[in-house]
Design goal:
Distance between the termini: 128 Å
GO cellular component, one term: lysosome
Strand order of the largest sheet: 1-3-10-5-6
Subcellular location: Membrane
Region (Disordered): 299-320
Helix content: 40-55%
Family: Belongs to the SID1 family.
Radius of gyration: 36 Å
Membrane topology: Multi-pass membrane protein
Shape: elongated
Structural class: alpha+beta
Number of helices: 16
Largest sheet: 5 strands, mixed
Length: 738
Amino acid sequence: MVLLSLRLCFLVIFNLVSFVKCDPVIPNSFDSTTNPDVIIKNCTIGELCASTINSTTVHYYSVQYNFNAKTAIRLTTTMNYSIQQNAPILVVVRQTLGVVSWTLPYAFPNGMLYTSVARILCAYNELNRNRSHTSTIYIEISTSNSDLIDYSIQLDNSTEYSLETGVPRTVTISPSMPIYYKFTFPPRINNIFIEVSSKDELCAVVSVQSFDCPVYDVGEIGFRQGHYQTMSKSASFNIYLNEFTKRNEYLIVFLVKPTDVDCLNSKDSAMIQPAGIVDIERMKNATVILSSPNYCCQSSEQPNQTSEGEENVISTRGNDYQCQPSSTRVLSASSRGFVPVNQLAAKDYEYLKQKFRVYPQTMGTIAIFYSLPVIQLVLQYQANINSIGNEDICYFNFLCTRQFAMLTAFNNVFSNIGYCALGALFFVIVYRRDNAYTRFITKNPDISKEYGIPQYFGLFYAMAIGLFMEGIMSACYHVCPSRQNFQFDTSFMFIMAALNIIKIYQLRHPDINPHSAGVFSFLAGIILVTVVGVYYDKQWFWISYAIVHIITCLIFTAKIYYMGRLKISLDFPVNLCKLVRQHGIFSRPRYLSRMVILLIANLINIGFALFGAITQPESFPNHLLFVFLGNLAICLVYYIIMKAIHWEAFTPLTVVYLVLSLCFWAVSLYFFYDEVKSYEVQPAISRTYNQRCIVLNTYDAHDIWHLLSSFGLFLSFLSILTIDDGVRGKERKELAAF
């Protein structure tokens, strides 16, 4: 028992001694690796600050500088790289309102590494951006690498940060050292042309972005911002003030791609640098120059001298130009006495191509959202007829109705198949022609800029969709023809007529074109007026319509006469009066041929308006549609006459299309006016107009109108599509803008 007690005492004493003398088994979790020391470093603007860092420390710089809206701060960071390094340096830059960061070395997706990175800090991360003040930039340098790494930072105050019109600027950029410049629109200047050129062929991207933070100037994000172009030796943009809604300034960003894949004809021939290659020499020099299309061409000694013939007038009130006090400039006419097309085809082709592509996109959206509720509505009408037996709801030609499934007059619905089929066919034709022209300008870029009429197909695509949808909507109307549903039959006819008029005008005025949003908003207003006219076709309505019709014609007359230079706005009358007084109220018309056709067109439209106000036709939608088609006919006839006056050739195919379209229209109109029903009268009276089927004991006169008019529209579209094929080989400066 005593022996056992001695053993227990000995064990306790041994354990106590061992506990006191033993080393700790678990290391301290808050060692210098995970809780590095923060070291405050000093650095000033313009000073090269070098140091050494590893995972045990974090370097923290606080740099004060004098902020000026006309200058920018550029931070350059560099490191000594070793292939054995297993962790990069992290650079974090904090401004008052933003943070930006990057790693050293900077790695691209293809494995290329750069040990130097330079970035311009965004000025809009400052609180007070409109006045000079003292600001502070905080820079944090850290790494998880246990080995010491040499690095340096340098902040420079760039005084060449803003661009000016007419002043070229040379830039030097690399994949890890992008650069950007700010440009502010001068007062009363709405359009700036940017041209970038380079002697080397390194692949780069030039991007025009809204001036916001962050600035997208690195990596793939920067390659896909704003308006952007991939360039090797040249790039150019037309930039408009209304594209930058937040403020009247934008940034031009320059980036060099890590490889030349996107600038070579064959991507297979590009040399892809293998992973791990460091600091490949890819320094690109480029020159950028900005100019405004608004320039002066009259000397101060001859303020009143102008050239004869048609001349072009635009506003030139920019403060950067030494102009006369006059608010207009005059583009000299050609030696043949007309404004040539090349003076109205100066904008970038790709920009306008994309702008016109918005038309079919908008058209497709409208077609979907307009047609779905219409289909639902008319099918409900048909269901009501079948359920309650009231056949006075819909105005059919009851002597020639052929039912199929639930549709009472399936023949009237199916006869619209021509619109759909020919609309789809026209879309395919336009698509093939578009691709052919794209291949042509790719192979012959210089020829495409100097010869023929610039080809834009966006409106033609929209016309094809319109023709297809006319078939769908006309079919919907004929499911249950009625006064209330007639707008379904005419809506896309209005749209097609308007698009054709715009296209005919745009052929010789490529740079002057309305935005699709404005066009379709105007057409939405027309359809709204049509609906009002269906329900309130009283005398007050017809008089109001006549007044609005005449005023609208006068506004468009002024806009067309001055080639789109007068913008439709609240001060439109004031600007028009100033322009008329400036060039003399009783002086010789500046555009004589334009004046003649516009005078004739206005007299015809005044006649349309007075006819409607005096006679008050039974169908206002038919009257308005006749007005649209009449104006379309005026535009097309005028275009053909002017081509003949200027001795421009027509291809045989175009002549065939024109002749066939006239034949189809003449015959189809005969059947159109052979009335077989009328929703303008009571159902009982309408049935007195009913006629028996005349084709295959299935189709009546109105069905024949559907088929023939679809071919008339299709051939008319082909006529406009090919009308200038005969001048493809003629120099653009010799083609008249009529």
